[in-house]
Amino acid sequence: MKFTYPLFALAGVAVFAFASCSKKTETAGSGAQKQTIANIGSDTMVNLAQAWAESYSTLNPNISVEVAGGGSGVGVAALINGTCEIANSSRKLEEEEVEKFKAKHNAEPKEYLVGYDALSIYVHKDNPINEISIEQLSEIFREGGGINKWSELGIAIPAGGNDDIVRVSRQSNSGTYHYFREAIVGKKADFKLGSRDMNGSKDVVDLVSHTPNAIGYSGLGYNTPAVKIVKVSKKKGDPGVMPTIETTLDKTYPIARPMFMYTPGTPPAHIQKYLDWIVSDAGQEIVKQIGYVPLPKK
Amino acid sequence: MSLPPNIVAARAATAVPSYLPSKSRLWLHLMGEKLIELIIRLCGISAIIFIFAIFFFVFREAIPLFTEGTARAAAYADAGKTFHLGEFLTSKEWYPSSQSNVRYGVFALIVGTFSVTTLAMLIAVPFGLGAAIFVSEFCGPRLKESLKIIIELLAAIPSVVWGFIGLIVMNPLIIGIFHVPVGLNVLNAAILLALMSVPIMVSIGEDALKAVPDSYREAGLALGATQWQIIYRVLLPAAKNGLLAAVLLGVGRAVGETMAVLMATGHAVNIPHSVFDSVRTLTATIAAELGEASQGSQHYRVLFLIGVLLFSITFVVNLTADLIVRGVRKL
């Protein structure tokens, strides 16, 4: 259970970023320079970023990467305000944000593609549904969409369940929320009111695992035995595709998205080294272990 | 005429009785007293200053909604959209971050707040007043002291911990007991709020019962009334104003609570049809959205207007409680 409630997260990030900026370098016992990298942003990427940070520090004890979540929006804000050295984002920077950054720092934010996430559709493990199309998802989640009951999808929820679809969504500070709106609901459209808006990626999967008639979206890495991932098809009638490494890389899975790290301008050598390591085979192996999709091998 | 300096000094010293500080020290003493009085006076009025400062700040952030009208700078995404107070209060469509059609309707949020508060009071009032009657009338002095300490401890649990209990403990319990799809709902939050407001009710309710003169109890006994008859026919009517104030202060606590309800209600914009429906409250909306509403935008101002609304609700509740307590003193 992560406690990343927005205000707390903001306060925490602010304190943390301030602390890490004020003592970027401190000398370790041996006399070597110990360097800290402040890494803030996407809630989808926070587990992955933490895993990278841990295994990198065993390789390079002099580098300590401090990871914080809060949402892609929080990471981008920290990048613009100059309070982090690497921002994680599960969406591309918007033009407006790049302009803001340029105006403030007189430099371009530098973008690094570090992996892919297949946005997965989760239902309860006893739900008999196997396949859903993007149109159906849109009808379920979009304001004015016509599907409100499982029977309208031809699904009978097993005993104990209720026919109403319980929609599990995210609060609007999340990059996943914005990506889902863009990819499923439609950029100009809105979510149907009455969805349960959760604070974290894991909370969505938790709620779905307790609720037989729920449907929700979250990162592929949050899969557990108590939930089921549904195949997604582009159009009704097309074959459904399971989110996997292969289907993400060959772009047959329709709702996969890239994950980015951003630095404010060209990073110093020690940060560049860390980013190089992340896209190397060793770093990408960790992407696979956490449950996301690594970059294709060159 | 001129006296030797030592005698002048001696006379000056004796001019003030020896048990008081010398003249210059006396002056210092008076100054010190004035200074301390000033500080204490400042402390006294600071509460008023703070209240007015908060009042001013919250209103200042919300007021431009009404004055700016359509003449908003084109820089804002919501430029050109007028704000209607009537729509704000009666529409149940809350779409603050829509790209195409921004709507600010808090009716569902008001209903959410009131449904959670009402159910919380239905649970808390019997418990709170029952506990107050027990502590004040039935239990012995030792049990009384330990009960009071434990009940006050209940008030010291931070609300985020209550929210955590709602999420981790109550959610699966409610699903298991009532066989409902989602355990984060009105009932869950109401139980938490009831537990949070019971301590206030118990301590104020007990004070109100204690304030009833013993002669009333003795008269009741002399007439041959049983203890229950004394409580029901004598004490409750005599203490009713204080007990009502206890309940209203509990209501104020429940309306203003944020963190626990943010975690336990399910945070869904929804008009509830049963206690098992998820809702969203006014306070939770401010907490979840203020962090990402850019300063000066219409969304930001509307969140402050919700603050004004909450302010008014708690003000009315507290004022009512206060007036009722005044009624008690007149007795």
Would you kindly provide a written description of the structure presented here, covering whatever features stand out?
The complex is a heterodimer of chains A (298) and B (331). With 298 residues, chain A is α/β, with parallel strands linked by helices. In chain A, 36% of the residues lie in helices and 23% in strands. Chain A is globular, with a radius of gyration of 20 Å. By secondary structure, chain B is mainly alpha-helical. Chain B has 2 domains: 18-62; 104-330, MetI-like fold (Orthogonal Bundle), CATH 1.10.3720. Chain B has 14 helices and 2 strands; from the N terminus they run H-H-H-H-E-E-H-H-H-H-H-H-H-H-H-H. Chain B has helices spanning 5-14, 23-62, 64-68, 85-90, 107-138, 141-155, 159-178, 186-210, 214-222, 227-238, 240-256, 259-264, 282-289, 298-330; strands at residues 94-95, 103-104. In chain B, strands 1-2 form a two-stranded antiparallel ribbon. The longest helix of chain B has 40 residues, at 23-62. Chain B is flat, with a radius of gyration of 29 Å. Classes of the chains: A alpha/beta (298), B mainly alpha (331).
SSE diagram, text form:
The complex is a heterodimer of chains A (298) and B (331).
Chain A: H1 6-22, E1 25-27, E2 33-41, H2 46-59, E3 63-68, H3 72-81, E4 86-89, H4 95-105, E5 109-118, E6 120-124, E7 131-133, H5 134-141, E8 166-170, H6 175-185, E9 196-198, H7 201-210, E10 214-218, E11 227-233, H8 245-249, E12 256-264, H9 269-279, H10 281-290
Parallel strand pairs in A: 2-3, 2-4, 7-11, 8-9, 8-10
Antiparallel strand pairs in A: 1-2, 4-12, 5-12, 6-10, 6-11
Helix pairs in contact in A: 2-10, 3-4
Chain B: H1 5-14, H2 23-62, H3 64-68, H4 85-90, E1 94-95, E2 103-104, H5 107-138, H6 141-155, H7 159-178, H8 186-210, H9 214-222, H10 227-238, H11 240-256, H12 259-264, H13 282-289, H14 298-330
Antiparallel strand pairs in B: 1-2
Helix pairs in contact in B: 2-14, 5-8, 5-11, 6-8, 7-8, 8-11, 9-10, 11-14, 13-14
